[in-house]
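Aim 2 progress. For Enoyl reductase (ER) domain-containing protein, the working sequence is reproduced below.
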Amino acid sequence: MPPLPQTSREIRLTTVPDGLPRPEHFVIAEVPLPVPDDGQVLVRNRFFHVFAALRTLIGGSVEGAPIPPLRPGDTLIGPAIGEVVSAAGNSGPQAGDLVSHWLGWREYAVVPVGQVTPLGDELPDPVAHLGQGGLAYAALTRDAAVRRGDTVFVSGAAGGVGSLAGQIARLLGAGQVIGSTGSREKADRLISELGYDAAVIRGAAPIEEQLAKAAPDGIDVYLDNVGGDQLQAAVAAARPGARFVLVGALSGQMSPHGTGGTAPVELDTYRLILKRISMRAFQGLDEQARSQWLERFGGWLRAGDITFPHVRVSGIDCAPRALQEMIEGRHFGTVIVEL
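Predicted structure tokens for this construct:
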């Protein structure tokens, strides 16, 4: 293993933006290389995930959120994969082990042993551990219980969750899978690359009209990553007994107005009652669901039954720009910074 450097670089928030974050709201800080204490490991990060919820954390988070808000001077956080280069003590991961943890956005991180997860050999490419398919898998198998022949609608289908959700729904036996996205180019890729049967395009025409055309007989399952008018359209298109799972709220997170911590929408309660629509929030990814997902995901990847759509951006210097581009919808699939 090459000698360790004396310093490490990390991305820090300098100013809470008035609106959407841009590269000028961050700084690349050079700091002394951290040294692990007992019960900690030093990890050289190799990849980290650029995820939408950062917009909310930067804007001030929301009450009851599991992650505290970021303040000026704080280093950004997020899912990361790295190699253990130094460990204090013989318990836990040792030098050379690949692990996942939540202290991304920096080249080196000191992480408590209890907050790192050693990577097994379930997936053929370690970077696939940064995919968000586990959320989609748990939402579709447990919270919505997709049945064979179901018509499934996925909003935000070209994002990190949606780009895997459509493929998973198909593998679970869905009869028709429809996705929403922001451009014709992405819509074509959803259909040609990810197995979607149809796509509705935000801004091309009212979503409700497009969805009614794509699913004239209605939808059985809605995996909601967006909220807003797409949730309204799903209610209008729902068949009796439809199952909705609320996973994300991109309509609020990606809005240039506010802090990204609210996503209000007006729904017709009468329609919900008459159609007997069940609507529940995503119930989280517990260890059992995560283990099951990794086993199935690995098998599907090796068999060529599923792909992991993602974009790799090289270098920590490009990370703030990658965040802006992700918010602006310029990328397809999961956005990952490679160090």
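The chain has two domains: 7-130+308-338, 133-281. This observation will guide construct design in the next reporting period.
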